[in-house]
Amino acid sequence: MKKIIISCLLLLNASFLFAQDRQAILKLMDTQRLAWNRGDIEGFMQGYWKSDSLMFVGSKTTYGWQNTLDNYKRGYPDKAAMGILTFDILKVQILDPENAFVFGAWHLKREKDNPGGYYTLWFRKINGEWKIVVDHTS
Predict the structure, then answer these.
(1) How many domains are there within the chain?
(2) Is the dihedral of CA 81, 83, 87, 88 positive or negative?
(3) Are 89 and 29 in contact, with CB atoms under 8 Å apart?
(4) What is the CATH number of the domain that holds 95?
(5) CB 107 within 8 A of CB 36
(6) Which residues 6+ apart lie within 8 Å of 56 measured at CB?
(7) 44-85, pLDDT tens digit by residue?
(8) What's the pLDDT tens digit per position in 14-24?
């Protein structure tokens, strides 16, 4: 009976921690959205792992935080090009205490068009903070 009670307590504790992690990831993504919508690409990039090992897969594969920032700046040179970003977060899966998977859709509302697509993000908890370590956006 003791083992069952201990197992239940451990499961409840893990569920609580995973719920906190999920909320932290959702908050990070909302912070990114708000930064984007202000025209603040550098603020948007704070959600990414500041490492040369960051991987961004779009029309090509880019490695590194700075290279990803530079690509964003080339692709979105001003606020009009950036538009208004929204996310449809379709799945947040906490895999373990240090890794999570997020899948969803993105949409931009701009004066002349409304592009969108899908993203798959691998988050890793680094120094106690969730960061995107791989972004596959199409």
Answers:
(1) 1
(2) negative
(3) yes
(4) 3.10.450.50
(5) no
(6) 62, 63, 68, 71, 134, 135, 137
(7) 999 999 999 999 999 999 999 999 999 999 999 999 999 999
(8) 455 589 999 99
Q: Is the dihedral of CA 130, 117, 136, 82 positive or negative?
A: negative
Helix (H) / strand (E) containing 13? helix 2-37
The string of pLDDT tens digits covering residues 120-131 is 999 999 999 999
Candidates 46, 49, 22; CA nearest to 35 is 46
Output the pTM of the full model: 0.87
Structure tokens at 18: 């995973």
Instruction: List the domain range (segments joined by +) for residue 33.
Output: 2-137
135 burial type by CB count under 10 A (0-12 exposed, 13-18 middle, 19+ buried): buried
